[in-house]
Amino acid sequence: MYDINTTHTPKGWNPKATSNDIPLFLLAAFIGLVAGFLAFLLRTSIWSISEFLLGHYIDGSFFPAAIFLPMAGIIIAVAFQKLVIKRELGHGTEKIEVAVKKRRVRLPFSDLYGQIIASIITLGLGGSAGAGGPIASAGAAFASKLGQRLELSERTLYILVGCGAGAGIAGLFKAPIGGVMFVIEALGMGLSAVSFIAIAISCIVSAMTTYWLSGFSPGIALGHMQNFDPTIIGWVIAFGVFCGIYSVYYLYIGTLLRWFYERIPSIWLRALASGAVLSALVLLFPAFFGEGYDIMANLMDGDINSLANYDFFKKGDGDTPRYIILVCAGLAVFKSAASTSSNSGGGIAGDLTPSMFAGCATGALFSEGLKIIFGLGLPSGNFALIGMAATMAGIIKAPLMAIFIVLETTGCYNMFFPVVFASSISYATMMCLSSIKNRAT
After folding, report:
1. For residue 2, what are the CA distances in angstroms to 108, 184, 256?
2. In a 3-state reduction of DSSP, which class is residue 350?
3. pLDDT tier, 319 (very low <50, low <70, confident <90, very high otherwise)
4. 46 in Cβ contact with 131 (< 8 Å)
């Protein structure tokens, strides 16, 4: 068995290097290149399918049958797993986390194409979640298979799996530091200096690959750069506490609904049940259809009235502040249920993007609510962006990853300090409340 950090080399492998770490770094770069391409392929495919199916829905040509597309996506994804993969793929991020903790890094190659195809089906047809988990799993599976083909040691496979998972996240969000933090915080990998450098190389190459393939556009393109007013820092701190409390609620609803789905013995009935819940939520809030990047961009640009475009019932008063507040509240309250129904009933999706979407809605709700109640002029765009990081920090329990993914994917680095404050406070609040709850039970 070959260990890339020893002086032995496998048959046919003769790198002309002065350090035994250089082959590892070259493999990391190659994994980043492939993961970046896969991330671009995944996100482009999801967007293209959704665009093809919905057409110009926002302009009024929405067809009512579209509310059944999310249910169809989950059922087709289940059929793909049962008939093609012949096993349940499960939740991508959780599988990698378990594999890392138990050092079982010989991942099945079917996770590469299986996670990507199933998530394209789930999300392309309107699943209200994200592609983070699937692309991390696909990247890790590719890295594991590559390492097995080269007959590398378990220790080296462990590092390469981290490279693949982190590169997948980095490519999807165009966030190289966020990808590294994902490996450290979300997966809990203990890294040496060499493995840290390898994972960093993989994430940088992946993010740059996706950045180049997408025409050098940011992960979420905003209409204008965010500017922060230091005089509202007190409200940012209060908002951090609010996001921490909201994170506890979000996780509770998700856990409860997931428990319900797991009690359904038949995977087909589970798919029908989760699909029915998801379709009902899409009927009430069409903004739940798909990943929701366009909605997040609008909210961060301060265009909160754009939510009126997602009014299925066409009430005609969508531009009134109180109506918009109700829409934001509905999105925040039910997003956890929509996300859990998308990825726990047979569909294949991830948790990172839903937490960002929930944060945007929560930020808009917080700022606009204070405007109506107290007449405050808080910038809703600022709080939507801050909320993305703060809720992700609490929900995913990874504050550093949340901070850098949001800053890198939007390019709003001048919002660093309020994002750090709110994310840290949100995470601390969530951990304190969780500790109190655990002691009480």
Report:
1. 20, 25, 45
2. strand
3. low
4. yes
